[in-house]
């Protein structure tokens, strides 16, 4: 998209030569904002202010600060999320046109009352905590960072599979708790299996599912996948066979879930589908607790109708001490850490900074959630 001619500005920063190229990075399309100088009523040039409430890579922050007035308040450091009234007050009083969040909720009232807001960035793929409809009604671009943690979740998934097959948590406890007395005992009680030759069923073949498939190829596993929105050609490129979900549940030695929560996927892994699994099979969920009938899965595990399961997501979290899942012996549990890597933060930082730069140049952001605002 080319920058509209009406978005041009004749004002120049004081003390600099006239150069549209130098000034372009600070201008925004007229339907959003004329330019940084038009937006700021003072004569001296002042860089655009950006409030970032997400974890952000320092190297990317340093680069942004060379041209922008960046305020970084990582919610993981402050241990708090802003209310709608706090957002409105700060955006208006501190003159903040660009807001970047990760965990904060940005609701309708913010878009209705914070008239200075011109761009909202969300450092995650899912934007369920954002009122995108209200943002669109007020012409505010919402930009996300899809697949920022796909590699991280895929690698944890492989780790969970190996933990189940090789009983790694139990083996660790055996040694660390001083229970390894007989030097040969582990050979009898800790014997596990390999990923080699096993059939892995991937439910959801999007960014994460495909990263899982790439990594499993190195283990010489046989790969099946179910995803109604991905064609067999793409699956074949990753040595994966496209099958229907019931067939996947029947054939797989390990079923791993990688689809997001939508009306279509809620309860997708039902009691019936769990009953199709082999008694020697394992189940891994590092995607969404709502895709699976969690109560049915706990019953299946308790009755040992499947070999075991690994969870990184839960309907109720943090998991309470009386949760029945904690009484199971054939599970591996992690505290929702699928995307918790330094590289995920670096990736979303780079993606968001690049789209902010595109926006300020009058170019369409690459990861625009509501393209209706960009006309």
Description:
The protein is α/β, with parallel strands linked by helices. 35% of the residues lie in helices and 12% in strands. It has 16 helices and twelve strands. Strand 7, helix 12 and strand 8 form a beta-alpha-beta unit. The chain is elongated, with a radius of gyration of 25 Å.
Provide a compact summary of the structure.
It is built from 16 helices and twelve strands.
Q: Strand sequence of the main sheet, in spatial order?
A: 8-7-6-9-10-11-12
Low-confidence segments, ≥5 residues, pLDDT <50?
Answer: 1-44
The third-level CATH topology of the largest domain is Rossmann fold
| Mean pLDDT across residues | 89
Q: Tell me the structural class.
A: alpha/beta
Question: What Rg do the Cα atoms give?
Answer: 25 Å
Q: Supply the CATH class of the largest domain.
A: Alpha Beta
Identify the overall geometry.
elongated
What percent of residues are in strands? Answer: 5-15%
Binned, the helix content reads: 25-40%
How many strands?
12
The H/E string reads: HHEHEHHEHEHEHHHEHEHEHEHEHEEH
| CATH A-level architecture of the largest domain | 3-Layer(aba) Sandwich
Give the N-to-C terminal Cα separation: 9 Å
- Largest sheet, strands/sense/barrel: 7 strands, parallel
Instruction: Count every helix, treating DSSP H or I runs of 4 or more residues as helices.
Output: 16
The count of domains is 2
CATH homology superfamily of the largest domain: NAD(P)-binding Rossmann-like Domain
């Amino acid at each position: 998209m080319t920058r509209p001619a009406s978005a041009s500005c004749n004002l120049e920063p004081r003390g600099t030569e006239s150069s549209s190229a130098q000034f372009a990075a600070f201008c925004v399309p007229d339907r959003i904002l004329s330019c940084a100088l038009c937006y700021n009523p003072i004569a001296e040039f002042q860089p655009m202010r950006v409030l970032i409430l997400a974890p952000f890579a320092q190297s990317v922050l340093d680069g942004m600060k060379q041209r922008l007035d960046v305020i970084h308040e990582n919610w993981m450091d402050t241990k708090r999320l802003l209310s709608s009234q706090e957002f409105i007050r700060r955006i208006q009083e501190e003159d903040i046109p660009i807001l970047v969040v990760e965990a904060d909720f940005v609701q309708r009232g913010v878009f209705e009352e914070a008239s200075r807001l011109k761009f909202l960035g969300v450092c995650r793929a899912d934007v369920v905590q954002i009122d995108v409809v209200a943002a669109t009604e007020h012409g505010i671009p919402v930009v996300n960072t899809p697949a920022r943690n796909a590699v991280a979740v895929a690698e944890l998934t492989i780790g969970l599979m190996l933990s189940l097959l090789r009983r790694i948590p139990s083996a660790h406890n055996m040694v660390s708790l001083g229970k390894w007395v007989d030097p040969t005992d582990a050979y009898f009680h800790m014997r596990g299996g390999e990923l080699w030759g096993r059939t892995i069923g991937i439910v959801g073949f999007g960014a994460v599912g495909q990263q899982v498939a790439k990594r499993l190829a190195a283990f010489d596993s046989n790969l099946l996948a179910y995803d109604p929105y991905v064609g067999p050609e793409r699956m074949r490129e990753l040595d994966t066979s496209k099958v229907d979900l019931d067939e996947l549940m029947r054939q797989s030695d390990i079923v791993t879930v990688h689809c997001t929560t939508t009306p279509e996927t809620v309860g997708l892994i039902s009691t019936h589908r769990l009953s199709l699994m082999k008694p020697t099979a394992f189940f891994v969920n590092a995607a969404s607790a709502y895709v699976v009938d969690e109560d049915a899965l706990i019953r299946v595990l308790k009755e040992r109708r499947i070999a075991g399961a690994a969870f990184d997501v839960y309907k109720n979290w943090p998991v309470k001490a009386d949760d029945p899942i904690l009484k199971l012996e054939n599970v591996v549990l992690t505290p929702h850490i699928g995307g918790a890597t330094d590289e995920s933060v670096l990736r979303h930082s780079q993606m968001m900074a690049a789209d902010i730069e595109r926006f300020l140049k009058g170019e369409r952001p690459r990861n625009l959630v509501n393209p209706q605002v960009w006309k």
